[in-house]
Amino acid sequence: MKYNLGQIELPISDEEILRQGMERDAIKPGKIQSYYFIRAKEAYKNFDFSQLDNFNKFEVDKVRTLFSQDPELSSRPLLFVMYILHRNGFLDDNYFKTRVFNLLDANLTSQRNLILPEGLITEKGILYGTGKDGHIWLYNFLNLQGVDTTDVVRYGTFDQSRASSEDCNAFISKRRQHFSKLKEFAGNADKLLYISDEQALAIDRLRKIYDVDTPLSKFLLTCTSDLGFGVNDSPRAFKVNFDTFAKNVPEAYLDRTQMFTEIRVAKQLAASREKRD
């Protein structure tokens, strides 16, 4: 026996029931905490997850495979899910104190050198930070926690370095941002993403924090997907979300005709490249 699984205070038969319930609750937005998740957290509260630290170096799919191949680990139906939630910090009671940000709070967004994590932005303009394993596990956790993820916006970032114009040997790091559906839902063209007033303000606040020199119109055309401003986006989403931004960020000059024309030209260029290829 390599692991002390006796610390898990739950019969295996009950654990299977909780696993099935959590899987159902994790994929649908809800407004109350999952009963199955509450029971699972209680059962695992005394489990020493550090004995699984050797799996921290592996991606989720690899961990899933390794767990399934180990007779001892696979004997506990909930263990894989609880381990992944643990290593992302989602079982930590401090998560909601340290990794949740109200993007409508001017005191927060005016801070100098503010570094916000990637995450999901809810309809209320709240950013929930991701863990090690990305946005989909955060989405699952928020659903289990009872946070409403209806029309949640995925916030992704990466750092891009370029040479300084003053010193070619010096590099300047710039944060690049992108807003979209969850990647796992991007293929569902029937579900359009209509952002709320609060999400429009949140996106503009993040633009001003990290990309203030880029006008909002250009930012929407180059740093979003699924909102209507991209080459493959829905014209209906464009109409609704354009109006939302125009209403909530009136100081930004948004020209509907000009933006729609730029999207159409970009589509034509993309189609032309596809023909040549």
Can you tell me about this structure?
The protein has 277 residues and is an alpha+beta fold. Helix content is 44%, strand content 11%. The protein contains 12 helices and 5 strands. It has helices spanning 12-26, 35-43, 60-69, 71-74, 79-87, 95-98, 106-109, 135-145, 197-210, 216-222, 235-248, 256-276, and strands at 100-102, 119-121, 126-129, 153-163, 171-180. It has a 5-stranded antiparallel β-sheet. Helix 1 (12-26) packs across helix 2 (35-43). It is elongated, with a radius of gyration of 22 Å. The N and C termini lie far apart (57 Å). The model is unreliable at 163-172 (pLDDT under 50).
What is the strand and helix layout of this fold?
Blueprint: H1 12-26, H2 35-43, H3 60-69, H4 71-74, H5 79-87, H6 95-98, E1 100-102, H7 106-109, E2 119-121, E3 126-129, H8 135-145, E4 153-163, E5 171-180, H9 197-210, H10 216-222, H11 235-248, H12 256-276
Antiparallel strand pairs: 1-3, 2-3, 2-4, 4-5
Helix pairs in contact: 1-2, 9-11
Question: What's the gist of this structure?
Answer:
The protein has helices at residues 12-26, 35-43, 60-69, 71-74, 79-87, 95-98, 106-109, 135-145, 197-210, 216-222, 235-248, 256-276, and strands spanning 100-102, 119-121, 126-129, 153-163, 171-180. The chain has 277 residues and is of the alpha+beta class.
